[in-house]
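Batch manifest, entry 17 of 40.
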Amino acid sequence: MSYQWLEWAKQIQSTAQAGLTFSKDKYDHERYKELLKLSAEILSTYTGTDMEEIQDLFSKEKGYQTPKIDVRAAVFHDEKILLVREKIDNRWALPGGFADVGSSLVENVVREVEEETGFQAFYKQLLAVLDYQKHPHPPQPFHYYKCFIECGITGNAANETLETSGVQFFSLDHLPNLSTARNTESQIAMLFEFLKDPNKHPIVD
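Output type: structure tokens
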């Protein structure tokens, strides 16, 4: 879903960050810092978020900006899919999160499943790689790719973890309130298509 003001702000921020990374001219550095400030002002104005909070968010980004990677595990059992209830918004999502530097895609998703559910996980197959901004998620200041990976599990579920307060399997026609920043109903419906057709090819935006 596209918000034009957000696209402008992200493009300005990305350009400014690339300039600060590669430019050797001190005057250009000052100009790029002004662009970075401008992008923060756009986000602050349209979201109502404090300017200092947005600048602090941007200050954590170093080097040439590239899309972030979000990994989500699709675990099926008895024609139901595994979801966890996120403590941050009390809504439900596929186990997962941002990929950590130093770990592979598979290592990241397996770790997320184990940390958020208590189950031991193993990789089965890649199902989809989606562009966050091409789907009906809430607007975000950065660009994300979402990787959906089918996993198998063993062991027992945990009742509660540091980030989650529930672990449960749901059928497609009885989904709970979803955390739409993490996954949408249409994306979960897409994952169930792989359950119906094991020969279905991975989906890439």
